[in-house]
Each structure stands twice: as C-alpha cells, then as structure tokens.
From TrEMBL:
Keyword match Signal: yes
Residues in the signal sequence: 1-17
Organism from which the protein derives: Baudoinia panamericana (strain UAMH 10762)
Protein name: NTF2-like domain-containing protein
Domain NTF2-like: 21-157
Keywords, alphabetical: Signal
InterPro entries recorded: NTF2-like_dom_7
Length: 164
C-alpha cells in the first residue's frame, strides 16, 4: 500500500519536490492512505504513527472534545504518543469513504470523509481533517471537525428521543 512509502523523513525529503511551492497531490494521497490504515487498524498503528507524525504533533478538534464533554479550544491529542495510544485503543473504524483529497498550498492537506460504521450507525458521519505538514514532511498539526451530533447518536452518547 502507498503508506509504506512514508517510512522515514529522509526518504520523502529526497523524493518529493521541496523546491516547488506546494506539496504534491501524490503525497496528500499517501498521507490520507496512511491515516486511514491507522483508523481502520489495517496497518500497524504504532509503526505508521511514528513515521507519519512529527515529534511536535498535536491534534486539535472541538468535535472530539465535545464528544468527550471536555472544555473546547484545547488539544484533543497533545502528542504523537498520545495520538498513537488513542487510536490503538479505539475500535477500528471499518468503513470510511474518502469524498475528496485536496492540497492547500504550500503545505496543507484537506481530507473530506464519511465514516459509515460508527457504533450502531443509523447516521453516516461526514467531516474533514485539515492537515498541516512540516518540511520533513510529517504531520505537524491535524485539525478535525465533523458531525459530532450524528457520531454521538450513532454510538449512544446522545439519546435521540431526548433531543427530538
Ligand atoms: C507494530 O509495530 C511495533 C513497532 O515496530 C511493534 O513493536 C509491534 O509488535 C507491531 N504490532 C503488531 C501487531 O505487529
Ligand atoms: C460501507 O458503507 C456504505 C455506505 O453506507 C455502504 O454502501 C457499503 O456497503 C459499506 N461497505 C461495507 C463493506 O460494509
Ligand atoms: C431515551 O430517553 C427516553 C425518554 O427519557 C427513554 O424512555 C429511553 O429509554 C432512552 N433511551 C436510551 C437508549 O437511553
């Protein structure tokens, strides 16, 4: 699979066009494939996470914080290690549809997705990852926002008759 290309920083740095103004669409597709392999647990989350995420990685998501009833505006994963632990211990998201992958020059990737099998899954959940790559290139910051009400209804955190 493509994500295996992202093995070391040095490999990517020599093969991607660092002299241009923008990361390549191919890199964007590889990064999304690697992320998806971790979320679905198809790949080794520790191995891929270590290759994919920068040492100063943070994840920022009010959608995730609100699902956890935590104050908004903070980080949802404070470090690479915390993210790897979190994904490793979460259930695999088995059915993810990629709706679009775009590059926002010079160094960002927009991944629009739909998770089809969250919990009991009455609702598909649409959302975006907005991914900031560093020069390595590894993921430095990942912003995630999605339909957290649909997610909460799917996995039983919200009672739909109470909100109707
Ligand atoms: C995943 O990779 C890590 C680090 O290389 C390794 O220690 C672990 O055994 C691997 N896990 C599986 C399930 O292969
Ligand atoms: C994944 O979800 C889509 C949309 O709900 C559905 O059409 C498809 O059959 C599902 N695939 C699997 C393997 O469950
Ligand atoms: C949802 O709330 C209604 C009304 O309070 C209650 O009757 C029902 O048992 C609740 N369902 C679940 C799954 O908690």
């Amino acid at each position: 699979m493509n994500f295996l290309l992202i093995t070391t920083c040095a490999f990517i740095a020599t093969t991607s066009a660092q002299s241009t103004d923008c990361i390549s669409q191919n890199l964007a597709v590889d990064v999304v494939a690697a992320l998806e392999a971790t979320l679905t647990h198809v790949g080794n989350v520790t191995q891929i996470g270590n290759a994919l995420l920068a040492d100063d990685f943070v994840e920022i998501s009010d959608s995730i914080l609100s699902l956890q009833s935590l104050p908004l505006g903070g980080v949802s994963a404070p470090s690479k290690q915390a993210w790897i632990e979190g994904i490793s211990h979460s259930p695999a998201d088995t059915n993810i549809t990629t709706l679009d992958i775009g590059v926002v020059c010079p160094n960002k990737i927009l991944w629009q997705w739909q998770f089809n099998a969250v919990g009991r899954a009455p609702y598909p959940v649409k959302g975006f990852n907005y991914i900031v790559m560093d020069d390595c290139p590894q993921i430095q910051t990942m912003y995630i926002e999605f339909n957290s009400i649909a997610w909460a209804l799917d996995d039983g955190e919200l009672n739909s008759s109470a909100t109707a």
